[in-house]
Write a structure and sequence with these properties.
Chain lengths: 74, 788
């Protein structure tokens, strides 16, 4: 059986992903989980959103997240 | 909040990610998340000293954690409200609300607000993505690129150079921090704003009940609520207050109407029901207001409403339903001011066609209550035949002045404007004519209508012997009872030859009694015989008894519902025609008898043989005509119509109306085919003319016979002047015969071109051997035919 914490995390993830699709954010599951991690770590959500926005502007959705990382690191 | 806990959450989420993704990218994700973690660490350490006011940093530092929880929940609430508002489509909002509550129960996500806020901002951006994309890249080139605006994403990914994008990031970065600034300021201001809002909320509760508040007051001149200008509130709040005060305004109108009319006897039962429904709705409204007030007081007292937020805006949303209801009620009050009873019900019924299901349902509910007294009235009217309508609201009205004999026709009438639109006219007619039973459904009305009709007809036929009366009328007025008429004719004959003024009613009655006693009519029901009466029509100068004599049949209520004066008048007309025919026949047969008896005695008088023969021929010609006509009227017309009438009477689905109709049809049939209809003036004219001629002819013949009889006597005594008379007699006879013939020919021509087939058949039966037909073709040969 899974660790209850992992299960809980997955549930939370499911809910948030659903909200995200409902809000039409256009984020996929992986990106979302990364962003959630960042939020959990105390990143300013507005700033994060802005960076996501720029990222989606620069890179079409087909690009892998590695590029994103590189961009952010720049 | 320590970093370790965050790390645990992070690893959990990462594990989650791993579980979700089965492909071999696990190591990559580890790497990315680690890089991100370090990146975040780096940024946080770097940024936090420079941005002490930033709310995020506060939270991250975790110093004012307890203070911030409230703020956080408020923010969550705001975000939530915003999301709800954004997503107007209810199913989405509902789903979102579900997810939101689920999320709140999750303990693993500690920064729910920031997560949500992040999602929201991303969603906002992705909505405006395309437009910013155009601005961001070289717009003109793309707009005019041959694949158009749709590929902007693709092109934009190629065109921008990396330095530009970094610049963008740098520019973008401080922006959210700046926008983050106003939030604490806003929070500080909120207290003031909430304080004023608190007062306004209290005020508005009063306004909802039509009572003046502290700041908002009812202006009776402007007929609206006005806001005290002394307090300074911003425009949007004023607007909100205006919209909220509509409730108070509508409430005042409805309440005013209810108060005015609830105890007014003029408004009637339906109006009272209307008022009671309105009152009921107002009570619901009071309950709602009381709840609101309780919530507001509680929140204001506990200083809680920052969190759960009863605001003017929220109030506006909450009161939407009540506002709609009050609006409808006020509209109804407006349009129903002057209306009563059925009219009121139909006016409200018209609103049930409203497109909004909410309003439709509301109106239906109201209508059910309002129409209750109306249907009660209807029920009593149908079941018990009682018109229980103290305020004259029902669509059937009773005229108490109407006499008993007109009961069926004019006692009850339908008031058009009181008739509810959902009761069709046909149904209303049936209701008004019947004492039956009913539910609102037409089908059951139909069933009971037939049942009551049957009962009514049954009563008429058994108790009032309707059928017997029909038969009696046919027998006596339409000369069905041959022996009786024969007797009557024989008895009356001598008396009626005198001028009309010398004939008296009592003599006629005596003769009538004698005729009844002498004929089979004596075995008839004494009740019917009692109704039979002889009488005189209006006497004009020069009339002889024949012209004015008539038989009457007395009918009283309730039979006069069917035997109306008009119907009786028609009977009378038919009787007169038949009576004249009968008289002609009677005279002719008398003449024939004389001819027969005198034939032998004149046998020896050679000179008169020719004349006598002519007179016999003319006589038999007339007899033939009269017999044919009589046969036609008595059998073809009366019997056929009678048969139809009998079928109609025995029709099981018939009711009194159809019976009356059948009877009327019967009468009009009879009179039409006997040339009595006023439209057939020509026929009538011919008919009377022929009658006259008959009389003339008969008289002439009789006279001639008498003359010849006397001449015969003279012959014996003085035979010298006998050569003169026969000639004159012959001429006279010829003249009469010629006149008769020409009239018959005219009649036949008219009949032959008549629309009615029966009448054409009559012309055939009158002229079956084309005797007159030939004469018509060769008018010159008439004399020869007569002479032969």
């Amino acid at each position: 059986m899974e660790d209850p914490k992992i299960k809980e995390a997955r549930e939370a993830m499911d809910i948030l992903y659903e909200i995200s699709t409902l809000l039409n954010t256009g984020l996929d599951r992986e990106t979302l989980s990364l962003c959630l991690n960042l939020c959990e770590n105390g990143v300013n959500p507005e700033a994060l959103a802005a960076s996501i926005f720029i990222y989606t502007c620069i890179f079409p959705k087909s690009d892998s997240s590695e590029n994103f990382e590189e961009k952010v690191l720049q | 909040m320590s970093f370790t806990t965050n790390n645990i959450g992070l690893t959990n989420l990462n594990n989650n990610l791993k579980n979700n993704k089965i492909t071999g990218g696990d190591i990559e994700y580890e790497r990315i998340s680690r890089a991100l973690n370090s990146l975040v660490k780096y940024f946080l350490h770097e940024v936090s000293p420079f941005e002490p006011n930033k709310p995020i940093n506060k939270e991250t530092v975790g110093g004012g954690k307890t203070n911030n929880t409230e703020l956080l929940t408020t923010r969550q609430q705001h975000t939530f409200d915003y999301l709800i508002r954004e997503h107007k489509s209810s199913s989405k909002a509902l789903r979102f609300a579900n997810l939101f509550t689920k999320l709140q129960s999750q303990s693993i996500v500690t920064r729910k607000w920031s997560v949500l806020y992040f999602l929201l901002s991303v969603s906002d951006q992705s909505n405006s993505n395309e437009m910013t994309g155009i601005l961001y890249t070289a717009p003109i080139e793309q707009t005019f690129s041959f694949r158009g605006l749709q590929n902007i994403q693709n092109i934009s990914s190629i065109t921008p150079s990396p330095p530009r994008s970094t610049l963008r990031i740098q520019k973008e970065d401080p922006l959210p921090i700046k926008t983050g600034f106003p939030k604490p300021d806003l929070d500080n201001n909120l207290n003031n704003k909430y304080n004023s809002e608190k007062l306004l909320l209290r005020d508005i509760i009063f306004i909802f009940q039509g009572i003046n508040g502290q700041y908002i007051k009812w202006d009776s001149e402007a007929k609206s609520f006005i806001i005290d200008l002394k307090i300074s509130i911003n425009r949007s709040t004023v607007d909100l207050l205006h919209r909220l005060s509509e409730l108070g305004f509508l409430y005042r109108r409805v309440e005013e109407f209810v108060k005015m009319n609830a105890n007014d006897p003029f408004i009637g039962l339906v109006g009272q029901a209307f008022c009671s429904v309105l009152q009921h709705e107002l009570t619901e409204y009071y309950r709602f207001i009381a709840n609101l007030e309780a919530t507001i007081t509680k929140e204001v007292d506990n200083q809680q409403f920052l969190t759960n937020g009863i605001s003017l805006k929220r109030l506006l949303v909450w009161t939407q339903d009540s506002l709609f209801k009050l609006r409808i009620m006020s509209v109804l009050v407006d349009c129903c001011k002057e209306k009563r009873g059925g009219a009121l019900v139909s006016t409200i019924y018209n609103y049930t066609n409203h497109g909004d299901p909410f309003i439709q349902e509301f109106i239906n509910k109201m209508l059910e209550e309002i129409s209750r007294p109306f249907f009660e009235m209807l029920q009593r009217w149908i079941y018990e035949g009682e018109l229980d309508d103290p305020f004259e609201e029902f669509f059937v009205s009773c005229d108490p002045n109407v006499q008993e004999e007109d009961l069926w026709r004019s006692k009850y009438s339908i008031l058009k404007d009181m008739q509810p639109t959902f009761i069709s006219e046909l149904l209303a007619k049936k209701v008004s004519l019947k004492y039956g039973d009913m539910v609102a459904l037409e089908s059951s009305i139909d069933a009971t209508y037939t049942a009551t009709s049957q009962r009514l007809l049954n009563i008429l036929f058994t108790k009032y012997k309707l059928k017997e009366h029909f038969i009696a009328l046919k027998r006596y007025l339409l000369l069905g009872q041959g022996d009786f008429i024969q007797h009557l004719m024989a008895q009356l004959g001598p008396g009626l030859g005198k001028p009309a003024t010398t004939i008296y009613h009592h003599n006629l009655t005596g003769i009538l009694e004698a005729a009844i006693r002498a004929s089979n009519a004596q075995y008839d029901d004494p009740d019917i015989l009692r109704r039979l009466d002889a009488g005189l029509l209006e006497v004009s100068s020069g009339d002889v008894g024949w012209d004015v004599f008539s038989l009457f049949y007395r009918v009283d209520s309730p039979l006069n519902t069917i035997f109306t004066p008009q119907a009786m008048h028609q009977y009378l007309k038919i009787f007169n025609l038949l009576w004249r025919l009968k008289r002609v026949e009677h005279d002719l047969s008398f003449c024939w008898r004389r001819n027969m008896t005198s034939a032998r005695s004149f046998l020896r008088v050679e000179e008169l043989r020719k004349e006598i023969n002519t007179s016999r021929l003319v006589c038999s010609e007339m007899i033939h005509f009269v017999y044919q006509l009589q046969y036609y009227i008595l059998f073809e017309v009366i019997e056929c119509s009678w048969d139809e009438l009998v079928t109609d009477i025995h029709n099981p689905s018939g009711d009194l109306d159809s019976l009356i109709e059948a009877h009327n049809k019967y009468l009009s049939n009879v009179s039409n085919k006997s040339f009595l209809n006023a439209s057939n003036n020509q026929d009538l004219f011919f008919n009377t003319k022929i009658d006259e001629l008959h009389n003339l002819g008969v008289k002439e013949t009789i006279r001639r016979d008498n003359n010849s009889g006397s001449r015969k006597d003279q012959n014996h005594s003085r035979s010298n002047d006998k050569s003169e008379d026969p000639k004159a007699i012959q001429e006279c006879l010829n003249e009469v015969a010629g006149q008769f013939k020409s009239e018959v020919v005219n009649l036949l021509t008219a009949l032959a071109h008549h629309q009615d087939t029966d009448l054409r058949f009559l012309s055939v039966s009158l002229d079956f051997n084309e005797f007159y037909h030939v004469n018509e073709k060769y008018p010159g040969s008439r004399k020869r035919t007569l002479g032969s």
